[in-house]
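It is worth pausing here to work through a concrete case rather than discussing structure prediction in the abstract. The textbook approach is simple: state the sequence, then state the predicted structure, then interpret. We follow exactly that order.
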Amino acid sequence: MRLHRLELTAFGPYPRPESVDFDELGADGLFLLHGDTGAGKTTLLDAVAFALFGRVPGARGDVKKLRCEYADPEVPTSVELELTVQSRRFRIVRSPEFDRPKKRGGGFTTQPAKASLTWLEGWDGEGITRIDDVARAVEDMLGMSYEQFFQVVLLPQGEFARFLRSDTAEREVLLEKLFGTERFLDVEKWFRDKRVVAGRVLEERRQGASELMHRVAEAAGEEPSFEPGWLESVLERLSLAVQEAEALSEETAGVADGADALLAQARVHADQIRRVRDAREMLARVEAADSASWFAERDAARRAIPVVPAFGEIAKFQQSYEFAVRDETRAAESLARLGYSGSSLREDAERHREEAGGLAELAAEAERQQADVRKLSVLKNSSYQVERRLLALNTELEVLPERVAQCRAQLDAAAEASARLEGLKARADAALALPEAGEALERTKKELHEAIDVHQKAKDVLQQVRHQRLENMAIELAAALKRGKPCAVCGSSSHPAPAQPMLGGVDAADEEEAAHDEQQALDRRNESERAAHAAELRIQACWEALGSDEPAFVVAEYRAALELARTKSQRQNEFVGLEAKSRELGAEKAKVEQDLVGLRTEHASLVTVVSERGARLDKARGEHEDVLTRRDHLLRLSKSLVELADRRAARDAALARVEEQQASVAALAADAGFPDVDAALSAARPAAKLQALDERIAAWERARATAAATLEELADVDPAAEVDLNEVTAQASSARAAASSAATGLARARAALARVGELAARLRAEWKSLEPLEASYAELAALTDVINGRGQNSKKMTLRSYVLAARLEEVAVAASARLHRMSQGRYSFVHSDSAGARGTRGGLNLDVLDDYSGRSRPAKTLSGGESFLASLSLALGLADVVANETGGALLDTLFVDEGFGTLDSDTLDIVMNTLDELRAGGRVVGLVSHVEELRQRIPTRLRVRKARSGSTLEVSLA
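Step two, the predicted structure:
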């Protein structure tokens, strides 16, 4: 890789366009970037890194603020780098995300990041304009990631000084980034996961075997035991128990059957004796019953049936008469309360009705008088309400202009938010898509790892099949031989001993099938790689859209703008409504003032009319409150008189119906044969009781017939005989219980034997299948411990640490050659792979061998100048090893950033001689320093000057 030209605008401390011609600067192979501290020397290296990878090294890359604060807001930030890699010359142009003034309106808008790659020589392909495609093309050509580039091409001395003094864990982090040993970490994890899975399977199988043993012991009713022969002894004891139970069951079953036959005979005889005794007792009770009175009571009740409902009608008529008397009493009391004392009810009612009719015309005037009085109150209240409304309108008209101005301001803010909404939505969508994109990336990476494992296994199978086929090719050729035909290999037509087919051999079809499986696994792996790459591009696109803002801030900003933009229509309607309301309130105020004058005029005229009408009505009302009250009194009096006359007529009619019904009931009782009504009512029975009499008589007749039939059927049975069922039943129950217990014992013994036999077979099979699993797990566990730095691993080094230790040993060898020369033979690096104190892992120990004392000592004990020499040697050695490791492009350009101020003159000479060696073969070395002595030693090719409004470049050639 060789740099040709760098141009930057509004980048870092440089507000104006600046350019650096590396071809001219590196004509001698060594040049110096000189300037005061803070002038922006390192920014030039940051510009190179940003052009290539879109980011800058070290802590400066975490800030993500690359635009110059002194630049004109209208000038865009950009970096242009022209370089040659692998004989291909191209130009890269990048712009970071920055805020620029809006083209319309005030404020700023975010300008997204951009990148482009244009081919100049050595390649005819089209240019690239996507940020992720540019980054991928640069990494492919350089053959290294941005972390490796920052360590190999840009040598930051401070980081290597920390590397010298760091512990094993910190060194491991840096070396892992440089040499890409993540795959070995995956191998360690794969073995650990494999052991966990195998251990879980083995433990489950062990647990299953233990559960089977406990189930065998539970089924056999014994305690489990790991003694040899325990299972066979259990089966033998169970078989003997089954034989004993069979013999006992046959014996008890015969005894139980004989006892059951005797019990059945005794029960039949006892039942016959009981039936004869019950029949004799029933016949005696039937003959002693008073059946004649039952028949007489039933006949009298049937004759009294017509009298009862007729008598009930008397009570209804009597109740109607009592109601009529109460109604008459209430009507008389109501009439007395009205002050009536006469006796001609209907004549007096007609007279009072005529008198009320004469007051009808004055009653209408009284109603109008009441309506007008109410209207006066309404007019007074309306005038009050109109006056209050007029006062409210005046108050509202005073504050309305301020509300209109406030609504106008809110409308302007909503309009501005609506204009910004589209840009904010794109950034918010990117922020919301980040979690899902992260999950997709993790998922695709996991699928990629699985696809790689599957493909590797399929590839191994294919190689094994091909190897087996080659080994057995003689068998395949022998199968194609025909009698009398020449051999395709030796040409002979006789085949005395052709190879014979063997069990498990493979042929062309097996190889083709294995190749097909391997191709399918490869296709799946490629597809998984594309999916993982697409997921990475999606995350990168999201971050490019977000820029330097946090996702939560972007989403909150968009939601706030969206909420404000949604109120635009509402604010517009409110503004239009307030203007319309202002016009409406003015018109309403004029109308209200006019209504108030009309109400006051109408109230004055109505007062006069009410006063004149009231004088006439006072004369006509008499002793009553008003004319309407007097007219209403006369009408109510007339109505009460008519009502009392009607109630007296109804009372007389009800009394006549009661007397008529009493005579009818007496006639019905005489026709039924009773001396009077009371006798008939005494003989009457309710329907339920009458039905009960019928059922009692029918039951008496059935009982007498049943008892007689039973005595006739069992005439030869002696009722005095006795049968003892308890003794016979006890004997049969005891025999049957013994037989049942024996049968149950036999069934349990047989079930236990069958269950234990089944479980025993499963337990033997499980023990046998556990043997290879135990051996396989022991082997896997031991290998996993070794790979992860435990067990038989005496170095206590994991596989990843072992690989890093090997790389560090190469770095130490390469760095020692330069350190030994720069320190005039005093110092060299010493690498150790021994374990640390108290059994901690080793492999990354790096000390310095002091030739003066012949002993190694920690790098922390070196002085400032010695630390710089060691750091520079380590950086250069690491650069060589990483370049060889990555197999990337030849690094023709190298930068060394600061650290020279700690060296004396003699040591500086040695360092310069070492750097001169790096120029061999056309290599260009750029030094970045503010040390004045370097300026005297190296002709100044590029000087950085700090200006008041930023930094500028002054180029002076030797």
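Step three, interpretation. Residues 360-575 form one domain. The mean pLDDT is 77.
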